[in-house]
TrEMBL record:
Keyword Transferase: yes
Domain of life per record: Eukaryota
Domain Aminotransferase class I/classII large: 109-494
Name of the protein: Unnamed protein product
Keyword GTP-binding included in the entry's annotation: no
Family per similarity comment: Belongs to the class-I pyridoxal-phosphate-dependent aminotransferase family.
GO terms under biological process: aromatic amino acid family catabolic process; lysine biosynthetic process via aminoadipic acid; tyrosine biosynthetic process
Cofactor: pyridoxal 5'-phosphate
The species this protein was found in: Ambrosiozyma monospora (Yeast)
Length: 506
């Protein structure tokens, strides 16, 4: 019945639509007026009794904030404090075997805990109740889709979410559009499911002086779609567009609202879905030219995130991929998908025959952290702290690169990342296109000599043309360096590598 309500049913995969999972233990129909026992004994599922679970208690300690001791010190000090006793104001919580009494608390914003008896048991495929409810509260409060009939389901992280979204959409031979620079593991999903990827060229303008950068591709997309038959002869029109709108990986830009509107209009005109992958959206920065605000309220933080594709969507055309990896921890292998309830229905059916729900231990730890922090508002407070740390890192790195010799001489420039985990450092290869690949190879060799490892732009591209003509940059991660000094030293080494390329210049 839902299929008739979903406007984009024709864009869903045949395989996805054909599944219908039925439990072998569903109840059998009784004749009319049959007097069944009101309270039958349930001896149904192969559901182990929780008293055989070996775990009887769990205690989790929480940091008061990321880097509680700061990291403006040197790496050695940090290594020493990493295992120091927890700070006095740090939180901790116990996971109970049975939290039903605790969960009865009638406080308005009480976030339910998952206990051991429930968390280590078989559970609902879309997610355990409190955590699934959290994804819905988060969606309402922070993401606000532009229509009513949306739903959510937990995934095993963003990458798994992407695979599941693709599985719900693509038949063999169908076409996915993706940005020419993108999170390339989508290519592996394409090989696995059998769909084709067509790359969308991008324009990106540098901001050597720290002003607002621009990432645009709507005009290229429009041209490609209008001339599809000649540009991509023999290929069916695309069914979906995979996009990383905020904190683009690898470029670090965010799309403007006007740009998102243009792309959504194209999706309507040419009838395709948009799959927005937003693991970085909450690491939302200010430019280096602005005084950083480390005191954002949750309201200010949410407002600064701006509108997403799904918030502009009124018909269920957008599927949004969320991940706890970048703001909580990748090892919990948990994320969620927001989409039209029909799309979530297909993804739920696929989840039942593939991964099932994320690990109960992960759901316990994640959910009860949220609970200990005080629910959604407390969790947003944690995300703001994470964002603040990345902002410090971003500013330190961008400023160090801007003041480096190579940038001052005009031999390279740095993009002031708007959001996310990556800063791009662009090597000026001059006008001679023939020199481009040669220069980038020389640059990589030079960085091996000065001692800094980054990712080549070309390694994060799905387009041969982009690799040849527009991949004169490296992606620098802000994430794993122990401190700001390390990032500043890395900036110097990157710059020195460019200087080596110019050693014969006068
Ligand atoms: N195989 C058989 C034969 C089973 O009976 C069950 C559980 N009822 C499973 C697999 C599912 O096991 P798991 O919880 O490891 O997915
Ligand atoms: N999507 C993008 C754009 C990413 O950059 C990453 C991680 O690098 C992922 C998805 C995978 O994230 P997860 O750990 O949630 O699977």
């Amino acid at each position: 019945t839902q299929s008739t309500q979903y406007k984009h049913e024709h864009l869903l995969s045949e395989k996805g639509k054909s599944r219908s999972f039925t439990h072998f233990y569903r109840s059998f129909p009784l004749p009319d007026n049959f007097k069944a026992h009101p309270k039958p004994l349930e001896l149904v599922g192969g559901v182990p009794n929780f008293q055989i679970f070996p775990v009887e208690s769990l205690k989790v300690g929480l940091r008061s904030k990321p880097f509680p001791n700061g990291y403006d010190t040197d790496a050695q000090v940090n290594a020493a404090t990493a295992n120091a006793a927890p700070s006095k104001d740090a939180l901790s919580f116990d996971v109970l075997v049975d939290a039903s009494e605790v969960n009865k608390v009638a406080e308005k914003d009480h976030h339910e805990e998952i206990d051991i008896k429930t968390g280590l048991q078989y559970s609902n495929t879309p997610g355990m109740d409190p955590l699934l409810k959290f994804t819905k509260d988060f969606t309402k409060e922070v993401i606000h889709p532009g229509y009513e009939d949306w739903n959510t389901i937990l995934t095993l992280g963003g990458a798994n979410g992407a695979y599941k979204a693709f599985e719900a959409v693509f038949n063999e031979g169908d076409v996915l559009l993706a940005q020419e620079f993108t999170f390339t593991p989508v290519v592996q999903s394409a090989k696995d499911i059998g769909f084709d990827i067509v790359s969308v060229p991008m324009d990106f303008q540098p901001t050597t002086k720290g002003g607002k950068a621009e990432l645009t591709y709507a005009d290229h997309l429009s041209k490609l779609l209008d001339n599809w038959a000649t540009e991509q002869p023999g290929k069916p029109k695309p069914k979906a567009f995979y996009v990383i709108p905020d904190g683009q990986n690898p470029l670090g830009f965010s799309e403007s609202l006007e740009h998102k509107k243009k792309v959504l209009e194209l999706a309507e005109k040419h009838d395709f879905l948009i799959i927005e992958d937003e693991p970085y959206a909450y690491l939302n920065f200010q430019p280096v030219t602005e005084e950083p605000n480390f005191q954002l309220t949750t309201k200010e933080f949410i407002e600064a995130l701006g509108d997403s594709y799904i918030s502009l969507d009124t018909t269920g055309r957008v599927i949004r991929l969320e991940s706890f990896s970048k703001v909580y921890a990748p090892g919990v292998r948990t994320g969620f998908i927001v989409g039209h309830k029909r799309v979530i229905e297909l993804i739920t059916e696929y989840t039942m025959v593939s991964t099932r729900n994320p690990s109960g231990l992960s759901q316990i730890v994640l959910n009860n952290t949220i609970s200990a922090l005080g629910g959604l508002q407390g969790y947003l407070g944690w995300i703001i702290n994470v964002r603040n740390e990345y902002l410090k890192r971003k500013n330190a790195l961008v400023l160090a690169l801007q003041h480096s010799e190579s940038v001052k001489k005009g031999w390279a420039y740095v993009n002031d990342a708007e959001c996310g985990m990556f800063v791009t450092f662009v090597v000026n290869t001059g006008d001679a296109e023939s020199k481009h690949e040669y220069m980038m190879n020389e640059f990589r060799l030079a960085t091996a000599q000065t001692g800094v490892l980054t990712v080549s732009g070309g390694n994060l591209s799905i387009s041969e043309e982009a690799k040849k003509e527009r991949a004169n940059f490296v992606r620098i991660s802000l994430a794993s360096a122990p401190d700001l000094k390390t990032l500043e030293e890395a900036a110097k080494r990157l710059s020195d590598a460019v200087v080596l390329l110019h050693k014969d210049d006068k």
